[in-house]
């Protein structure tokens, strides 16, 4: 693999001082594999619209995830379960239009792959053909290995998701850490089975850090963590959590890197005040 094929180290496509440079190649699955092989790390964020995709893409985020978390972060649902495949395709179209460099991955929503491998292939084809994504993500353990194989045989890269799987929250007893004690062996076995089935990456959510580290050693493909410690190849957060848009109590694994909620609140308040007192629009805003 030469330097023309591999962004090193995942450049942002601009030179010092903000001057545009040559276009940076699209991040591909083999770039993530190269990161794992060479001991480098990469970042992943959710995105659900054009502007978030543009901003995160330009900031050098290697992977953008159109998560089924759009259900509770955009559409106002209490869980990820209600979002439909058609809605995921709509969000995917917006993100893929806004991202020129990042690898774009979309979740297979609840109900779109559980019936059979054929259903999983059909749903994945729609996400790729209509949503224009580059890969799909699927929740579940080793029992979905055949579905992963079928999707990969169709030419669609699959990111596997193990540990806590939000689509199974009712059967798991709510939002709970998975893989503690002897249960850690199951997380490892699931990850190995899915990697052997052809998954190009293993995402682990809310699993003990030592279990995640063992998974990372057990599989040759890259790993991504969210609440899974620091031993994984990559990390992912929901962007509204990362940027401080969400209010209220945050999960233990969330770090807020900004306070976007306060910035937007202040801007809206100032806008409202200026409209009401007549100072906006001023002569400079009028024709």
TrEMBL record:
Cofactor remark from the record: Binds 1 Mg(2+) ion per subunit.
SUPFAM superfamilies membership: Phosphoenolpyruvate/pyruvate domain
Assigned keywords, A-Z: Cytoplasm, Magnesium, Metal-binding, Pantothenate biosynthesis, Transferase
Region described as Disordered: 1-25
Catalytic residues, chain numbering: 205
Cofactors named for this entry: Mg(2+)
Pathway: Cofactor biosynthesis; (R)-pantothenate biosynthesis; (R)-pantoate from 3-methyl-2-oxobutanoate: step 1/2
Residues where Mg(2+) binds: 68, 107, 139
Annotated compartments: Cytoplasm
Database matches in Pfam families: Pantoate_transf
GO molecular function: 3-methyl-2-oxobutanoate hydroxymethyltransferase activity
Primary residence: cytoplasm
Keyword Magnesium: yes
Cited Gene3D superfamilies: Phosphoenolpyruvate-binding domains
Superkingdom field: Bacteria
Reactions performed catalytically: (6R)-5,10-methylene-5,6,7,8-tetrahydrofolate + 3-methyl-2-oxobutanoate + H2O = 2-dehydropantoate + (6S)-5,6,7,8-tetrahydrofolate
InterPro entries, per database record: Pantoate_hydroxy_MeTrfase (IPR003700), Pyrv/PenolPyrv_kinase-like_dom (IPR015813), Pyrv_kinase-like_dom_sf (IPR040442)
HAMAP family noted in UniProt: PanB
Matching PANTHER family: 3-METHYL-2-OXOBUTANOATE HYDROXYMETHYLTRANSFERASE
Family: Belongs to the PanB family.
Functional summary from the UniProt entry: Catalyzes the reversible reaction in which hydroxymethyl group from 5,10-methylenetetrahydrofolate is transferred onto alpha-ketoisovalerate to form ketopantoate.
Protein name: 3-methyl-2-oxobutanoate hydroxymethyltransferase
Organism: Arthrobacter vasquezii
Gene name as annotated: panB
């Amino acid at each position: 693999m030469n330097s023309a094929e591999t962004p090193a180290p995942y450049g942002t496509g601009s030179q010092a001082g903000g001057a545009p440079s040559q276009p940076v190649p699209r991040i591909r699955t083999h770039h993530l594999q190269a990161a794992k092989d060479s001991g480098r790390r990469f970042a992943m964020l959710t995105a659900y619209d054009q502007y978030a995709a543009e901003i995160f893409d330009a900031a050098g985020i290697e992977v953008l995830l159109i998560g089924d978390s759009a259900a509770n972060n955009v559409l106002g649902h209490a869980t990820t379960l209600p979002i439909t495949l058609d809605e995921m395709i709509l969000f995917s179209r917006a993100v893929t239009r806004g991202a020129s460099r990042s690898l774009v991955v979309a979740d297979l929503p609840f109900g779109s792959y559980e019936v059979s491998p054929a259903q999983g292939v059909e749903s994945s084809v729609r996400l790729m053909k209509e949503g224009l994504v580059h890969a799909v993500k699927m929740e579940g353990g080793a029992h979905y290995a055949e579905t992963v194989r079928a999707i990969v045989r169709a030419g669609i890269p699959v990111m596997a998701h193990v540990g806590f799987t939000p689509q199974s929250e009712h059967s798991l007893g709510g939002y709970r850490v998975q893989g503690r004690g002897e249960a850690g062996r199951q997380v490892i076995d699931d990850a190995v089975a899915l990697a052997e089935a052809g998954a190009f990456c293993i995402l682990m959510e809310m699993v003990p850090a030592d279990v995640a580290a063992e998974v990372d050693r057990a599989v040759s493909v890259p790993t991504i963590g969210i609440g899974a410690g620091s031993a994984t190849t990559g990390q992912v957060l929901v962007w509204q959590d990362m940027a401080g848009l969400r209010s209220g109590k945050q999960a233990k694994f969330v770090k807020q890197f900004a306070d976007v909620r306060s910035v937007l609140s202040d801007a809206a308040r100032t806008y409202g005040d200026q409209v009401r007192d007549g100072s906006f629009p001023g002569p400079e805003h009028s024709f």
